[in-house]
Amino acid sequence: MSRSTEHTVKAFDGEIVELRGLISEMGGRAEEAISGAMRALTSHDLETAARVVQDDKRIDALEDQVDRLAVQVIALRAPMADDLREVVAALKIAGVVERIGDYAKNIAKRVPEIGSGRQIEAISILPAMARAASSMVHDVLDAFAARDWEAAVEVCERDREVDDFYNSIFRTLVTFMMENPQTISQAAHLLFVAKNLERIGDHATNVAEMVYFAARGTYMAERERGPDGVRS
């Protein structure tokens, strides 16, 4: 290998490490946003809610960095096969993680609207749903860093748990609204919170599909996604 080729390979390896690092930071901040939004919701902490909304700008900025670096790598290094799939996966995953951050921000924005008055039973279930969804995000990004397609498949299988949480909360809130019409506004906001968490789980499965493709070069089969498949 010539000195110039060796330098190019080292430079490319460094850029891949940087891409993974940026994705990891985005994921960590998205997880923090989810947990912060839920703390704000359960304790009606308006200050924490406002901070989650403000901090979302950092996730957006990191996505921009990933976009620029991925385009630079493709343009200057012309990666092939496995390397190209990893760069493209990083580019797409950054967009999905940015959306996950947006869902957490949306939850935080609803905190002032929900109020701190009478507690609705479903609020006590939402933190467990949030932990399940956030755990999926954490584990699927670990799978990306390790190029572990089997771990990605396992994340897809866990999406059923988040869906079950959503269905349970939906039924509880609809029943509560029917029995207590004066709480319709508050309960409706909580329904939107549950839907945002359900979408976070869906997006984690979308990332899992990208991890699978980057590692194996083939698309995830329906049987590996689970009976419900992966929703966009």
Automatic annotation (TrEMBL):
One Pfam family cited in the UniProt record for this chain: PhoU
Lineage: superkingdom: Bacteria
Presence of the UniProt keyword Transmembrane helix in the record: no
Keywords: Cytoplasm, Phosphate transport, Transport
Record's function text: Plays a role in the regulation of phosphate uptake.
Family membership noted in the UniProt record: Belongs to the PhoU family.
Protein name in UniProt: Phosphate-specific transport system accessory protein PhoU
Taxonomic source organism: Sphingomonas jejuensis
